[in-house]
Structures are given as C-alpha cells and as structure tokens.
Write a structure and sequence with these properties.
By secondary structure, the chain is an alpha/beta fold. 35% of the residues lie in helices and 28% in strands.
C-alpha cells in the first residue's frame, strides 16, 4: 500500500515510525514532515493545510490511505475534500472537527448532551468579560474559542492574570480571529488525563491512557504549552474511573453526535480532569495527541496500519 501521513511534528514521526513496521506498507510519504520522518518516509513538499494540493498529490500518486496528524487541516476540511474525490482518509470531517475547532461549540455540545465539564460562560465583548471575571473571582480559566496551537488557554490564579488574558485575546488580538470569542470557566482541580479513542460512528476502540505535561517550567509552573512531554499508562485511571469515562463521556458523546447527524470517523482525544466528583472534560481534540502519540504508539502491539484499515472499513 501507498500511505500518506499529513503533518510535521513529533506525533507524525511516531505515526510514521509505527506505520513503517507494517508488512502491508509499500511506500510511505509525509507532507511536510521533518528531519526524522524523512529517514523513513518520502518527503512531500506540501504544507499540511494546502488541502487541494494534497488531494491532487494523493490522486496523482495513487495513495491508498491517508492519515492526518494535526488539527488545522481537519478543521479546514481535508477529509471532506479527499472523500469527495473517493480517496480514503482517516480523520473526522469538517463538521465533526468543530469539537476542536471551536471551544464554544464543544462546550455547548457537552451541555446539550449531559457530558460532565466545567461550568462556563461565553463572551464576545471584552468589557463584559472583564466585568464578569471581577464578579466571579479567581482561580478561573480563560480559553480562546478557535485553534491556538495549545497556547489559547490561560489558567489564572490572580485577577490581573485574568484581565491581561482577556486584553491579550480580545483587544490586542494576539491570537487573531481565534480570540474574538472567549470561554470563561471554573478552574477544576485534580489530575489531568488524556483519553484517546478511535471512533467510527457508534463503534470505538480505547487506546492506552496517558498524561501529558503542559506547563513550560519544572514543578508544573509557567504558561501552558502544546505539551512538554507525556507518559503512558496514566496511573490515575483505575477500572472504575475508566468505566465512568466510557459511560459518562464517550458513550454520551457518541449518542450526541448521532442525534445531531454528525458522523465521526477518526481519533477522538478527550482531555480530562479527574476531580473528586469524577472525570470532567477540559477539551476535545479531533486527532491523536502530541506528545501523547509517542508513548501510546510505542505501547500498541501488532500491525497498526492493519488495525487502522480494519477499523476504517468498519
């Protein structure tokens, strides 16, 4: 088989490394890749968000299967374009990808379908957002609505931090359109967990659990990043907690997607906080985590490409 991996990070290197071990693989390509990936895959000099060019390449080269790593091309509709051309691709379509593409959409979806998450409020006016924070108090979490590469979440323990976050996002527009709306929510306490499944309609397979470290500095200090590292398994997810995550989050998500007419096929990453009241969703991502993919794929035994193909076909 000819397989194309879309993306350029450590996650895509881990994916390429795992796929390269499959006896089904004949040629492996990566757009755009990096120095490590190019040692095991052919370089495709196309940006991951240049959807038309990627689809043209896949058609021209006879790519049998495409796996998308990052969220941006998914949110921009790469799956819709590939499927329109009859090309096999693993990832959610543009509508389903709104679970990551818009924090507001995701929070309101959870609210509609009884998925446990932090209480929240949505603001489009920075003055109203600042006024709310002053009344609500701290600690508080402020999130940019749109994609921000893991840098759009501010966990504020002081009022100054919260007001500065709102100013940065909504007035100074440091993240551009992503910060035009913000979600302000209660600050949950507990251990974080990354819970990733492969989802196809109403069927799902749970991947090994993990925990990533988002803070920039040692001792869980500093601003959030896209991820400083990860390990697997997550020791805080016992059998009872796993059952609650499946029943209260994953199965309610699947039911909600079905009720709203959204077909989801791809990886679904639930970023969780394991609170004293049970697991609650911090965010949904519509792809494998980065850096979580690296320890997770090292733990998966067998032919990963065959697993993906079998699950894709349903």
């Amino acid at each position: 088989m000819k397989v194309l991996v879309v993306g350029s990070g450590g996650r895509e290197h881990a994916i390429a490394w795992k796929l390269s071990q499959s006896p089904l693989l004949r040629e492996l390509y990566c757009a755009k890749g990096n120095g490590g990936i190019w040692q095991i895959a052919k370089r495709v000099d196309i940006e991951p968000t240049d959807i038309k060019a990627l689809a043209d390449f896949a058609q021209r080269e006879g790519i049998d299967f495409t796996l998308v790593g990052p969220e941006a091309p998914l949110v921009e509709g790469i799956v819709d374009e590939f499927e329109k051309r009859g090309l096999k691709i693993f990832g959610p379509n543009k509508r389903a990808s709104m679970l990551e593409g818009s924090k507001v959409f995701a929070k309101e979806f959870m609210q509609r379908h009884g998925i446990p998450t932090a209480d929240f409020h949505v603001f489009e006016d920075p003055n109203k957002a600042k006024s709310f924070v002053k009344d609500f108090g701290v600690p508080v979490v402020i999130k940019a609505d749109g994609l921000a590469g893991g840098k759009g979440v501010f966990v504020c323990k002081t009022l100054d931090c919260a007001l500065q976050a709102i100013e940065s996002l909504m007035v100074q527009k440091r993240l551009g359109p992503a910060g035009e709306r913000v979600v302000i929510e209660e600050c949950l306490e507990g251990e974080e967990a990354s819970y990733i499944v492969m989802l196809n309609g109403d069927r799902y397979v749970v991947l090994p659990t993990s925990q990533d470290h988002k803070r920039l500095l040692d001792g869980d200090q500093g601003p959030n990043t896209g991820g400083m590292g990860a390990y697997s398994p997550n020791p805080f997810i016992d059998q009872r907690t796993d059952e609650r995550i499946r029943q209260e989050i994953i199965q309610r998500l699947i039911k909600g997607l079905k009720e709203e007419g959204i077909h989801y096929r791809g990886f679904l990453y639930a970023g969780l906080m394991l609170t004293s009241d049970g697991p609650k969703v911090l965010e949904f991502n519509v792809r494998l985590g980065d850096p979580e993919a690296q320890p997770i794929l090292m733990r998966i035994k067998g032919d990963f490409l065959k697993l993906l193909l079998d699950f894709y076909e349903g």
